[in-house]
Design a protein that fits this description.
By secondary structure, the protein is mainly α. The chain has 2 domains: 1-20 and 54-121, no CATH class; 122-184, no CATH class. Helix content is 60%, strand content 4%. The protein has 5 helices and 2 strands, in the order αααββαα. It has helices at 2-28, 53-89, 93-120, 160-166, 169-179; strands at 145-148, 151-154. A two-stranded antiparallel ribbon has the order 1-2. The radius of gyration is 22 Å and the shape is elongated.
Amino acid sequence: MEKKRTVSLLSIWLSAAAVIMVITVLSIIPVKPVQAKEPNTPAKSEPMRKCTMGDMNKCMAGCMKKCQANMEDVAAAKAAIKAAIEAIDKGDAKIAKIKMEKAEKLLANVHKCMKENVEQMPCCNAKCPISGKSIDRMNCPKELTCVYKDMKIGFCCPNCQPEWNKLTDAEKDAKLKDAMPSMK
């Protein structure tokens, strides 16, 4: 009986350690800024719809609200993990399990929110990097996007993404440079 309890407490403690590791990794992942074109470089063509300041403010307000909620959920998950560890130290596997389940639910919610935020982010490019056609950066369908070097890339049609996937990184960088919006 004692061996079973020790194994149960050990598995809860290992789960807590794994969750703490995930939280730590999430808190130190650097966010790579989108690289802008060189100043005074003339644009070859304008996007179909420019990202207006109103679009940016709406997008940022939504992200800020969700980020604040995520930070609160992560703080609550950290507190639940700490309480679980304390319960393990006291030999109370039942309380430890309840606290770990709470942390798991909170972190699942954070993950879901982060995924939604990424999906709602505008594309960094104004034109399809393959065809050169203008795209709607704010409303590009999920199935016409991919992530490349921490940037959300939009395509004009389903045929372009497979072509993009065949390119080398150097070729992708060159195509993307021409597809970026002008910074007037």
